[in-house]
């Protein structure tokens, strides 16, 4: 599950449970969407969202155990496709959210967990432990169209995209910075969250119009937003 807490102008979305891998299943996905909706409805100028997690994992991707618990291979495949469909609006929600967004990746992020992080405007990662790992090639799964569109939108270097998706490399903090997967790496979990809060406060002091911010973000990533079904709209200037 997750919680949302407002601290001044910052919304802190926390994936809860120290012993949890924060696997994305229908329950957690619905909880994340509810928290994002709450942040969006309560946002004012200067708001920013920071997503953090408890425990050793940021998110270990889709809940494959939940899928396999369906019994037959066909039923498990149906459950997996259901999670793929349910998660797409989470990415859309983050791309449309009317405030800056920051992911503080303080643990392992795999597959859809990497996509959750990359859906934010900024990704900060701890440098002492934890990896980002797109595992689909290793486990024999193809990628949804919005996954590849998100990687193309957020990772500028073709060689980095190749290594992440076609070599399934496990990337640690400093290497992730060099590859352009994250903006910065920090000493540990606490330092990473503190850096995310500082960044959120810095962005918040600009007191941007959230509607304008969200529309510019959508216009910046036209391919991704097209796949997500998001259209950028002009905003009447408020002079």
UniProtKB/TrEMBL annotation:
SUPFAM superfamilies on file: ClpP/crotonase (SSF52096)
EC number: 5.3.3.8
Alphabetical keyword list: Lipid metabolism
Gene Ontology cellular component terms for the protein in this record: peroxisome
Signal peptide per UniProt: none
GO MF entries: delta(3)-delta(2)-enoyl-CoA isomerase activity
Reactions mediated catalytically: a (3Z)-enoyl-CoA = a 4-saturated (2E)-enoyl-CoA; a (3E)-enoyl-CoA = a 4-saturated (2E)-enoyl-CoA
EC category name: isomerase
Pathway: Lipid metabolism; fatty acid beta-oxidation
Gene Ontology terms: biological process: fatty acid beta-oxidation
Domain of life where this protein originates: Eukaryota
Pfam families attached to this UniProt entry: ECH_1
PANTHER family, per database record: ENOYL-COA HYDRATASE-RELATED, ENOYL-COA HYDRATASE_ISOMERASE FAMILY PROTEIN
Family per record: Belongs to the enoyl-CoA hydratase/isomerase family.
Protein name: Delta(3)-Delta(2)-enoyl-CoA isomerase
